[in-house]
Design goal:
Strand order of the largest sheet: 1-3-2-4-6-5-10-11-9-7-8
Radius of gyration: 21 Å
Oligomer: single chain
Shape: globular
Helix content: 25-40%
Bound molecules: glutamine
Distance between the termini: 13 Å
Strand content: 5-15%
């Protein structure tokens, strides 16, 4: 048996039943990473020795929780006391965090084996995983294409069986969009559901950590471990945590599925449209009522997001000045020059663009016109969702307009790149949860590429999203497998 073909829950059953050891599973993943990572570039750092030690411990009977012995990847913006936390930036190339993120502590307390850190767009800013100081990540379905971003490494690793599951972060779609492009499951939890302590901040009012997995049940399993209040994150919620695995197989009764015209326009690729149609058919076949809803402020999502996110980023990234944090230039004439040159050398172009946009939006004279206005529109977007959820239980929509694009396509066109996030950013602006699951395959230039369908729900209704996602997954029948998986 190829152990890497099992999802997290499958591997858990195999280990619990004694059909394989944690050490065998971790070894299989490490061998696979060695063989395939040079082509995919999903990982920046692999903690081979540490992972083997953790696996051995599990085999020796140290089984503290539901992830005992399961090999998991983490995005390179999650701090760990071991290894480096680089955010795929030269700025943090040598950064060794003095503490470990709460989510990683929770994974390890549940017995997980941490395989390594996955590549991403620098500081999580991007939709292609090309803005990565350690080279672009490739899509396992077609290495000419990107995996999406910013958690492209996490999604590519899950899709190419380079981890059993992983954690990413989602500020405007960074879990869901790469999950859609790579044919895996990506869940962005409600804002506050998962502690952000130890997540390197991009835009603090939007960032959330969530699972990137091969199946819906794995997403539920990881959510069980990472959710809940954390005194170290003042924005984390004490809302009670559901058992996301319990009831996962029971289709919810009397479902009302909302379809918003604003998400189903002409701009969608035929395969994306077909995937949504198929999902509608499956859900109505299961007795759901399909309801048309209106989200009138949808079109303002992108400009609003790119003001709020860049404003927060410009403030969050002020600390990387070569003195407090980060790369320090070797050739500074004086202190001001030290700050300027350290930042100029340490940050990549996209991060600089965002810092400039955000600084402009917050500057006196423009603050009211941009930032304050964006906050007002953000409120309207949130109200759209509140009103929609008075009439439906979840919204069904595409995750992206198209399947994965060819690497470099939008490299000189930031606006086109930003427009990629049109179906994902509004969930972050509103704070609501969203999940992307594989919806089917598109045929593009003779290559089969996955497309995603997305479910959006009211605050703290992850359990509902997961149950409906499971219903769809059962019918759509994926485990989608990219061709690369059979190569090793
Ligand atoms: N693609 C979006 C951006 O570039 C979202 C990134 C994210 O969610 N981290 O900002």
């Amino acid at each position: 048996m190829n152990l890497t073909e099992l999802d997290l829950c499958g591997l858990k059953e195999a280990i619990d039943a004694g059909r394989c050891s944690a050490l065998e599973a971790t070894t299989a993943y490490l061998e696979r990473i060695e063989a395939l990572n040079p082509a995919i570039n999903a990982y920046h750092e692999v903690y081979a020795q540490r992972a083997l030690d953790q696996a051995r411990l599990a085999d020796e009977g140290h089984r503290p929780g539901p992830l005992s012995g399961l090999p998991i990847s983490i995005k390179d913006n999650l701090c760990t006391e071991y290894g480096r936390t680089t955010c795929s930036s030269r700025m943090l190339a040598e950064f060794e965090a003095p503490y470990t993120a709460t989510v990683v502590k929770r994974l390890e307390a549940a017995g997980a084996v941490i395989l390594g850190k996955t590549n991403m767009d620098e500081f999580a800013m991007g939709s292609s995983s090309e803005h990565c100081a350690w080279g672009p990540v490739r899509n396992p379905w077609d290495t000419e294409r990107g995996p999406g971003g910013s958690a492209g490494g996490a999604a590519a690793a899950a899709a190419a069986w380079l981890c059993a599951g992983g954690l990413g972060s989602d500020t405007g779609g960074s879990i869901r969009q790469p999950a859609a492009y790579c044919g895996v499951v990506g869940l962005k939890p409600t804002y506050g559901r998962v502690s952000r302590y130890g997540l390197v901040a991009f835009a603090s009012s939007l960032d959330q950590i969530g699972p990137v997995t091969r199946s819906v049940r794995d997403s539920a399993l990881l959510m069980n471990v990472i959710s809940g209040h954390d005194p170290l994150d003042s924005t984390s919620s004490s809302h009670p945590v559901d058992d996301f695995l319990a009831g996962l197989e029971e289709p919810p009764a009397r479902l009302r599925i909302g379809l918003a015209r604003q998400y189903l326009g002409e701009g969608n690729h035929a395969a994306v449209k077909a995937a949504v149609d198929q999902a509608v058919k499956i859900l109505s076949g299961a007795g759901a009522q399909i309801i048309e809803v209106d989200l009138p402020h949808t079109e303002y999502g992108i400009p609003t997001y790119y003001i709020v996110a860049t404003s927060e980023a410009s403030s969050n990234l002020a600390r990387y000045d070569g003195v407090h944090y980060g790369h320090r230039t070797r050739n500074a004439k004086d202190l001001v020059d030290l700050y300027a040159a350290s930042r100029a050398e340490g940050f990549g172009d996209e991060v600089k663009r965002r810092i400039m946009l955000g600084t402009y939006a917050l500057s006196s004279g423009y603050f009211d016109a941009y930032y304050v206005r964006a906050l007002k529109v953000r409120r309207l977007i949130r109200r759209d969702f509140d009103q929609a959820f008075e009439n439906c239980d979840v919204l069904l929509c595409p995750t992206t307009t198209d399947p994965a694009f060819v690497a470099g396509k939008n490299a000189d066109d930031p606006l086109s790149m930003y427009l990629n996030d049109v179906y994902t950013v509004n969930a972050n602006l509103a704070g609501i949860p969203g999940i992307s699951i594989p919806g089917g395959l598109a045929e593009v230039d003779g290559v089969a590429l996955p497309v995603g369908v997305q479910l959006l729900g009211p605050m703290f209704e992850e359990a509902r999203l997961l149950r409906i996602a499971r219903l769809l997954e059962r019918e759509i029948g994926l485990g989608l497998c990219p061709p690369v998986v059979s190569r090793v």
